[in-house]
Amino acid sequence: MSWKERIAVDPDVLTGKPVIRGTRIAAEFVIDLLAQGWRKEDITENYPGITDEDIKACLDYASELMPAERVFPIAS
Question: What pTM was estimated for this model as a whole?
Answer without folding.
Answer: 0.85
